[in-house]
Amino acid sequence: MATTTSAPPTTTHEMSSNKETSPAENKLAPVVSSTESAKAQIHYVTGVRLVLLVASVSLITFLLLLDQSILATAIPKITSQFHSLPDIGWYSGVYQLAAAALQPLSGKIYTYLKLKHVFLFHLFLFELGSLICGVANSSSMLIGGRTLAGLGSAGLMNGGLNIIVNSTPLEKRPLYTGIMIGIGQMGLVTGPLIGGALTEHVTWRWCFYINLPIGAITAAMITLIHIPEPTSKAPYSLSLLRDLVLHKLDLPGFAIFAPSCIMLLLALQFGGDGSHAWSSATVIGLFVGAGVLAIIFIAWEARVGEKAMIPGVLFKNRIMLAAIGQQFGLSVCVFIGALWVPTYFQSVKGAGPTESGVDTLPQVLSQVLFAVVSGIAVSKLGYYLPWAVFSGAALAVGNGLMSTLDQYSSKGKWIGVLIVVGAGRGSGMQMSLIASQAVLPARLISVSLALLIFLQNLTAAIFLVVANAIFTQSLIKKLAQYAPSVSPQAAFKAGSSSDAVRKLVAPDRPWELEGVLDAYSESLRNIWLMMVAFASLAFLFAFGMGWIDVRKKKGSQSAKEVQDSEQGITGEREKEEV
Predict the structure, then answer these.
(1) Residue 7 parent element (H or E)
(2) Within 70-114, where are the H helices?
(3) Which of 66, 180, 332, 388 is the most buried (most CB within 10 A)?
(4) How far apart are CA 298 and CA 313, in angstroms?
(5) How far is CA 47 from its chain centroid?
(6) Do 45 and 3 form a contact (C-beta atoms < 8 A)?
(7) Which spans does this entry mark as compositional bias, Low complexity (predicted)?
(8) How far apart are CA 270 and CA 268, in angstroms?
(9) HEC assignment per residue over 219-284
(10) What is the pLDDT along the chain (578 residues), one digit of tens a residue?
(11) Is CATH 1.10.10.920 the right assignment for the domain spanning 310-459+531-572?
(12) How distant, in Å, are the alpha carbons of 318, 337, 557, 563, 573 from that of 567?
C-alpha cells in the first residue's frame, strides 16, 4: 500500500557542496543545516497519488491558459449587457497586469514557505476572482474579479511545476511536465471554441463558473496528498514573517519591479487597442517610466545578490541563458499562433467559430501527443537537447508552410501543416524548464521556474501587440491593392469573422471578394513569417542548453556544463561574503 519511494542517499559531491556553504548562505537558504541536508531523503509520490497529483496540476494549467483565450468570443455579449465597449481591453489586460507583476515574487515565496499552502492560497484567489466575475452585475465588478483572478494565477503555473519537481525524481519530470504543459496548451487553443459554445448556448458567466468545480476538485486532491519538501522550511511564526518581510522576499525589489511591469503592459494596452496613439504623451510616458524603473530594478538586484527576487546568478549560467532564449522564441510561436490560426479559418476559409475550433484539432492533438512522447523519450533516454532542437526546426518549417496557405489551400494541406506546427509546440515548451532543473540547485528552482513563466507571459503580451500591428498595417496596403473600394477602417470595425469579412464587399461588386480574401491571407502571411524568425531563434538557442543526461543524479553528474554551473553559483556566493 505504500505510495512513496525514497530517493538514493545524497552523493559525495552534494555533501562537499553543503560543507562549503557559508554562514551567509545558511541564512539565505531554507535549509536548516548542511548535516540535515546531507542526511535527508526525499520520499517521492508514486502510484495512484502521483496520477491524481499530475491530473490536478494539469487541470489547473488548462484553466489558466483557458482563461487567457476564453473571453475572445464572450466579450461582445458582455459589453452589450454592461454597455461597456470602452472597457474591452481591461477584461484581459488587468488579468495580465496582476499576474505578471506578482509572478517573480511568487517564486521567492515558494522557496521559503510550504509548497502546498502557497499553491492552495493562490488557487483560492483565482477561484474567488472567477466567482466574482461570474456574479458580476457591472463592468467594474467584472474588472475587479479579473484582477483578483490574475493575482491568484501568478503562483499557479510555477506552483504546479514545483509540485512536479518536489514529487518526482529528475529523470521522470520530463514526462509529467510534458503532460502538464500539453494539457494546459489545449486550454489556450480551445478557449475561443469553449467560450463561444458557453456564451451561445448557456451564458457568458459560465466562462468563469467553469473554473469553480474543477478548481474545487483539484484543491481537494492536493490537500489530501502529501507533497514532499526537498528543503527544510521553518514553521509559521511571527519571527518567520518578520524575517521574510525584512530579509528574504526582497520586497523593495518587488516595489520597483511591479510598477515597471504594470507601466510597460499599460503602454502596450493603450497603444494596441487604439485608445491612445503610440506617439501620445501617455504612452511615451509609460514606456519611459517602465524603462527607468527597469534600470533601477536591475541595479538593485545586482546590489542585493542572491537575496534578490530574481538572483543575478541565474543569468551567469550559460545553460539557463540558453533556456531563456529558447523559451522566448517558442513562446512567441505558441501564444501568437494559438490566436491567429482560427483567424485564418474564419476570415479566409469562411468557417464559423465552432467549425474553426474543430479545424484546429489536428494541431491540438499533435501538440498533446508530442508533449507526452517527448516527455517519455527524455525520461527513458535522458537527453532533452534533441527535442529542444527538433521543436525549433519543426516550428520554423511549420510556420513557413503556414505562410503558403490561402483561400484555395486543400484540407489535406492545412491538416498536414497544422500537425507539423503542433509537433513543434508540443515537443519544446517543457524543455527549458527541464534544463533549468538539471543545472540549478534546489534553492533556485522555484525562482527560475517563476522567471521562465513570467518571461513566457510577458513575451506573449508584447508580441500580441506586435502581431496585431503587423497584420493591420499589411491589411491596409493589401486592401488598397486588391480591393480598393473596401475601406480598411470598415474592415477593422467589422472584425475577422467569416460573415463580417464577406459583408465588406458591396453587393454590386462581388468580384472583389477574391481580392479581400487575398488581402487577409497575405496579411496573415507576414505573421507566420515573423514566427519563422522566432522559431529559428529558439532553434539556435537550443544548442546551448547542454548535453545532459537527466537520469543521473545532479550531484553525481560529471557533465562539464553542470560543473560550470555549480562553480558559477559558488563564486557568486563567495563574492557576496567578501
Answers:
(1) none
(2) 75-82, 88-112
(3) 388
(4) 13
(5) 28
(6) yes
(7) 1-12
(8) 6
(9) HHHHHHCCCCCCCCCCCCCHHHHHHHHHHHCCHHHHHHHHHHHHHHHHHHHHHHCCCCCCCCHHHH
(10) 434 444 444 433 333 334 343 443 343 334 333 333 433 466 788 889 999 999 999 999 999 988 877 887 777 678 778 876 667 667 777 887 788 888 888 888 888 888 899 999 999 999 999 999 999 998 889 989 998 998 999 889 889 988 998 898 888 888 888 888 888 878 877 887 788 788 878 888 999 999 999 999 999 999 999 888 877 777 777 887 787 777 778 888 889 988 998 888 888 878 876 678 888 999 999 999 999 999 999 999 888 877 888 888 888 889 999 999 999 999 899 888 877 888 888 888 888 777 877 888 898 889 889 988 998 899 888 899 999 999 999 999 999 999 999 889 999 999 999 999 999 998 988 898 888 888 888 788 888 888 888 888 888 878 887 888 888 888 888 888 888 888 888 887 777 777 878 888 877 777 788 888 999 899 999 999 999 999 999 999 999 998 888 877 554 443 444 444 444 444 444 443 33
(11) no
(12) 12, 39, 14, 6, 10
Tell me, which fold does domain 42-228 have in CATH?
Growth Hormone; Chain: A; (1.20.1250)
Nearest alpha-carbon partner for 106 in 315, 254, 290: 254
The cell for 561 is 556544463
- The rounded distance, in Å, linking the Cα atoms of 452 and 28 is 22
Q: Which three cell numbers stand for residue 349?
A: 476559409
> Would the CA dihedral through 189, 502, 197, 466 be positive or negative?
positive
Residues whose CB is less than 8 angstroms from the CB of residue 201 and which lie 6 or more positions away in sequence, other chains included: none
Question: What per-residue string of b and e applies to 560-578 under the rule 16 or more CB within 10 Å gives b?
Answer: ebbebbbeebbebbeebee
